[in-house]
Amino acid sequence: MRIGCHLSSSKGFCHMAEEALSIGANTFQFFTRNPRGGSAKELDENDIARFKTLCAEQGLKHILAHAPYTLNPCSADERIKEFTLNTLSDDISRMERIPGNMYNLHPGSHVGNGAEFGINALAELLIKVLPGARNTYVLLETMSGKGTEIGRSFEELREVIDRVEGHEMVGVCLDTCHVYDAGYDVVGDLDGVLTKFDNVIGLKRLKAVHINDSKNPFSSHKDRHEVIGGGSLGNEAFKRIINHPALSSLPFYLETPNDLDGYKAEIAFLRSLYKQ
Ligand code: FE
Ligand code: FE
Ligand code: ZN
Fold it and tell me: Whole-prediction pTM value?
């Protein structure tokens, strides 16, 4: 089973790798820079070189970088657009230094300009940055649909993928809390949800799963993560999710409200539910 959690990137790649290994993870997610800030630290060449060796030796792979929350790829504001474009292309070029991994972003919010506008703005931005993503999958995250978020439905994500002409490096990261909050019943009808995903987007685009319980009920459009088994999805749903043939070989990333010990326990628990 490929599983990890979100880790702090403040001490570099090797530190994250060691932390991941210490809690029984074989992958991890991290923010490319302060999630609420702007600039990123210089890459440390030594750290990167040692990290690559560590990954090869210890079997760490499918590292997932997460874009900061300050971006809005759907914005009409020129300054936000420019900041988002610069950040995305810088982040992608950094990820190209550790090729074969993935970069996840929130599609953004149209802030009143309408879904059509947001989808267009996002697609235009992707068309500019995708040529830089030669060995990095760029993933669009499924969102809960709070406020004016884009990505609340599989159809919206499909629309974005169509407008970048199905670029081969574009994929999707399915967040279990978000889709449940968005009104996809992964508890009562997991098969139905995944069939829909396949029909609308295509399962070959699904590259990663954010595995989170939800503090809120089905279709609440809220987006507040809960520890595994502590929310409205529940342990039985997670057992079916991680073992579903369409998902079981994908990497799973915990973004639950936890410290490192909590993540270690959740990883062990999910491994105990995993059948392969
Ligand atoms: Fe996210
Ligand atoms: Fe997520
Ligand atoms: Zn979330």
Answer: 0.97
